[in-house]
Design a protein that fits this description.
The chain has one domain: Udp-n-acetylmuramoylalanyl-d-glutamate--2,6- Diaminopimelate Ligase, Chain: A, domain 1. It is 37% helix and 15% strand. The chain contains five helices and five strands. The chain has a five-stranded mixed beta sheet, with helices on both faces. Helix 2 links the parallel strand 2 and strand 3. The longest helix has 10 residues.
């Protein structure tokens, strides 16, 4: 699924406006507020949904080849985090939706396990 579609489904705001983000492709999503869970369960080329707005989130995404982050529950990271993500070419989005509704909207919109069957 392209990030443009993610933005539409979640009515999300783009935080890294300098990046070309619309055509970034994600194969699945991982919703978590524990970075240890993200490290244990996230797949490469995923979209991370989280309410955490700390530098560790950006670093975790670098390690795992996560393609973009959606901050849920109306959370907006500090400008230093946005700048860090921009340097890493990691698109950041923000939605007012809670994590549960965000994940459900993405799944209903077509982002799910079928898209990663051929990847593994």
């Amino acid at each position: 699924m392209k990030l443009k579609r993610v933005q539409e489904l979640l009515n999300a705001r783009i935080l890294t406006t300098e990046l070309d983000w619309e055509d970034v492709e994600v194969l699945t999503a991982c919703g978590a507020d524990l970075m240890s869970d993200v490290l244990a369960f996230a797949k490469p080329k995923s979209l991370l949904l989280t309410g955490l707005v700390y530098p560790q989130v950006i670093r975790t995404c670098e390690i795992l080849d996560i393609k973009a982050i959606v901050f849920v529950r109306g959370k907006i990271p500090p400008q230093t985090i946005i700048e860090m993500a921009t340097q890493q070419k990691l698109p950041l989005l923000a939605t007012s939706l809670p994590m549960y509704e965000s994940c459900g909207s993405l799944y209903k919109g077509g982002l799910g396990a079928k898209e990663i069957e051929n990847y593994e």
